[in-house]
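Hey L., structure's done. Input below.
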Amino acid sequence: MGGAKGGAKVANAGVKDKEPIKTIEKTDVSAEEGVKKTSKSTWDSFLFTPVDISPLVYLRIIFGAIMLWEVYRHFNGRKQPTLERYYMLPQVHIQYNGFNWMPGPLPGMYMYHFFAVLGFLYCLLILGLWYRTVSILTFLGLFYWFCLDMFFWLNHLYFALMLNFILIFLPAGRNASLDVLIDPSLRLAKVPSWTTWLIKLTLAIPYIFGGISKIHMDWLRGEPMRTWAPEKGDALPDYVRNLLDGWYWTPYFFSWGGLIFDLFIVPLLLYQPTRAFASLNAAFFHLMNDKMFHIGIFPWLCLFSTPLFFEPETLRPVLNFEWIFARPQTTTNEMVESPKRRKIVKLLFCLWFGFHTIWPFRHHLYPGDVNWTEEAYLFSWQMKMRDKSGRADFTVIYKDTGEKLLVHNSDFLIAVQASRVSTRAEYILGYAHFLCKHYGKKRPVEVYVDSEVSYNARDYQPLVYSEVNLCEKSLSLFSTSVGDWIVPLTTPFESKRKETNARIEREGVAAIKKANPTDFVGQRVAQYVDKVLYFGTVSKHKPHAEGDRWVIQYDDGDREKLTRKFLARGLDLYSKKQHLDYKNPQAGDDEDTGDEEEAESEEAVVVEAETENEEETTVETETGSDDMAGEVAIEAQAENEEETEDEEDTGSGEKAGNSEEATCTPGNDGESQECRAD
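Output:
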């Protein structure tokens, strides 16, 4: 009995011992399921909570209006419309790597017809008529426009392409649109929150990655803003310019201020307590960018997109269109997502932002500074990160006879194209391939380039190996061209050119600003071009929206307009070389020293020209490009200036390259040229 009882106790004890184990297992499973459920609930809440549709309608109208303005700007031009100058007149069109299958510019007047149709489609987008079809057609049209020519790469066109693409998937035509007026059953008041987050996070991409790209040693040291600030600052209001003018820390103010703004503006706009402060800073930043750099629609697109970071219902009072439709918008319809559709939305949401998170960083797979090599530079949001000036002289050699032909770039390229070919490796290669096809139609040829480029105030060095036949080279996503045909950057940042810039900007520009602009009329200046020294006289002063300009009449008959910075350099160089100026009365004292000393003086001109800092010959920075690039705006403004000054641009070449489209400097022999681009 005792043994049985004891055995029963043992058995019962065994059962009781197992029960807690089962309970623990159940508790663990329940906790794991709870975490999954909470995680799923949070994810669904983030993407599928019903919110007001107003931000979608606002984006449709604002984006359509700005793109309509951009299309209209391409019809502008005093001599010829921009679309004709960019896409119809040039002989050379370089397409993006991997998109060579895309058709080029349409022949004849069809380019006009294309832009007219695209503008009409953006009108329909604004009105919300046939929204889904129109959003697809505008995207396809913009994609074709974007792929027409890599020469005219613009960050703002890429950004517009991204926004146009997401509009295809947004129900932005389901409220305040002609579609709803025709069929009221289409009207929605609420949409899933993924629609507004898709807009906010897409708008955040240029800010965040633009800020990350600015974590670069040159940018942190104030370049290229140190080069740009003296002249571009003239476009700022007087009270701002007077505050920043002449201070050592001005380049750092622009550089570090831009870095901090890009990195933190998005969270500050999303966080309600800091929203008002962030909005004012965003407005100041974008308006200053437009005033200083004239970068087209990019600042305006970003500025008018700022309210999209607010809560969705904030825009409802702004978009109350009852007075248009003559009926109250009392609908409470919501867009309901099915479980299957939710899975698709989550997948596409992750793919979209996963791609745009990884793609801008691909340049880290290649060696060297991306702003020098420009491998994977495009689509990486490297905006306003470099100032380049240089030259590229191409030589064609016929293989069968060894005959050499020096190419005149002006025979094939317009000024904007020549500017980029002179400073960027990818454009050099694309242009070289064009020359290979052009000259190699009947006989096999080789193409070589002799190039020299200065990057962010460094001294000049070759960009491409001069002994490499570029007809045999190509770009690859999987291998680097550095060391193959692109010369690695070896010139140190601390250079004589930087010291010369700083001295001239501090002393020469400051003195010119304080003086009466007309006091410089009649003074002599000097410029080096292709290692040849030229003298000229300041013939007249011309006021300009971005600062004063002085017309220089050179002794060889050429004319050009100089800004303060380059006038200061011309005056500074003349003070050193005036003894070589035959028009200078004081030069006669040196000529009496005999034939031997005169010969030494002439030899000194050549020697000094070869050793003189190349910055003396560089030209005014073209700041419309890359970045957050803007050649259309620059040319439009230059044309307005040119309208009253055509008689000044009749010379055979420009010494400092202040042409209406780009900053290119033809050589004395007309065969080589130096160009400058940001």
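The CA atoms of residues 31 and 37 lie 10 Å apart. DSSP finds 24 helices and eleven strands in the chain.

-- N.
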